[in-house]
Amino acid sequence: MSPHAWILCALLWLLTGDRSQSASRGPVPSRKRRLAEDGEPKKCSYTFLVPEQRITGPICASQGPSLPDKERVTQTNVADVHEILTKQRLEMDRLRLIVDVDGNMVNEMKLLRKESRNMNSRVTQLYMQLLHEIIRKRDNSLELAALEARVLNGTAEVLRVSGLYRELELRFSTVAALVNNQSLLIAALEERCLQVYGNHPREPPPPPLLQVVPENIPVYVPRLSNEIQRSPGVPAPEDRPTRQANASLEGPFRDCVQVMQAGHTASGAYLLTPEGSETPVQAWCEHDVDRGGWTLIQRRSDGSVNFFRNWDSYKKGFGNVDGEHWLGLENIYNLGKQEDYKLLVELEDWMGKKVYAAYSSFHLEPESQAYRLRLGSYQGNAGDSLTSNNGKPFTTLDHDHDAFSGNCAHFHKAGWWFSACGQTNLNGVWYSGGVYRSRFQDGIFWADYGGGFYSMKSVRMMIRPVD
Ligand SMILES: [Ca+2]
């Protein structure tokens, strides 16, 4: 039972007790009547204030005819009630406070719940994002793995192809060596046949064939042919018109460096008049190689010019200055004696690869010395095949100055600074396709690049004053 109920019961008990006492004693005379009966006014001994809603008006207790003590409302009872009331008020205040605090807590709880819902929503959203990210990364890893697999496959393929390439190179070297040996064998057999069956006068023995098959032999599918090939559409040397030189009223220029210094920086044909030369000579000035100023003394490019010529022809020069040509020993001699020149030999194989051999100095001795070749030190990536010809006089079919018992010009079908007969001949027969088959090594060969049976696709020999 609540404290309020207890208070209410106590008050009802007090009131009902008072009334029952009054009822047992009969009607209670009113105060006025009692005043009239007693003759003098009597004062209330005690005045009680009780809650309005329960008791109205003062409660009077007469000292007159006394009620039994136990039935009277004593001061102690009132004090007890008052104390109970006070306690009840305090309790109510405390409860109100608790209720207020509880209300605040409820609001906070609501806020917390709302916040919790928001947090849950946010966590769900983040979780979804994380899930999405994980899926995306997994897809990326799959793509990366696929890419890696493709790279690995590509690498394996490259390795396989490079293995095949090496194998082909080995096979080619084997075939080239075989061709070389076969040529030697054929030559020996031919000679023996002539000795046994032939009544023909014995020919001079050919020079020894070069056995050189260097490691850096140009890779090419060999085409065995003895025919001298010419590019389609290239007219015969006799029919080919000679291009007019870039004739200039300036000059005379003694070499292509002077041409370049005079402002003619385009490569082309120019008229040069070297010191000691009686007439101008047409020469090709190459300005697109190594700072320019190079004077070409020889060019091979398509087999359009026959280089198997006599002394006089080699002395004066022949061919077309913008194509295959030989500048002439006398002109080369005149150029080389002007000052210190250097030589550049440019070789191109049938794969289109260009290599070069440079010599630090170059000049020829006069005709009385058969235009003996004088070379400086080698530098380049073609290999040094020309030093074997250094110090050697020039030989043609009709002027044999070589060290061989026969005439190297006869076997190599060219005029050159043969020794016996040397590691190179750039005036030989122009064979199409590189590797050629012939009784003699008569192609345009450079033994240190391709061997004796590999004919170059194009060759240029050019000189320029030393810097
Ligand atoms: Ca000789």
Automatic annotation (TrEMBL):
Residues 247-467 form the Fibrinogen C-terminal domain. It is found in: Secreted. One of its GO terms (cellular component) is extracellular region. GO terms for biological process: blood coagulation. Residues 228-248 are annotated as: Disordered. Gene3D superfamilies: Gamma Fibrinogen, chain A, domain 1. InterPro entries: FIB_ANG-like (IPR037579), Fibrinogen-like_C (IPR036056), Fibrinogen_a/b/g_C_1 (IPR014716), Fibrinogen_a/b/g_C_dom (IPR002181). This is Fibrinogen C-terminal domain-containing protein. The lineage of its organism: Eukaryota, Metazoa, Chordata, Craniata, Vertebrata.
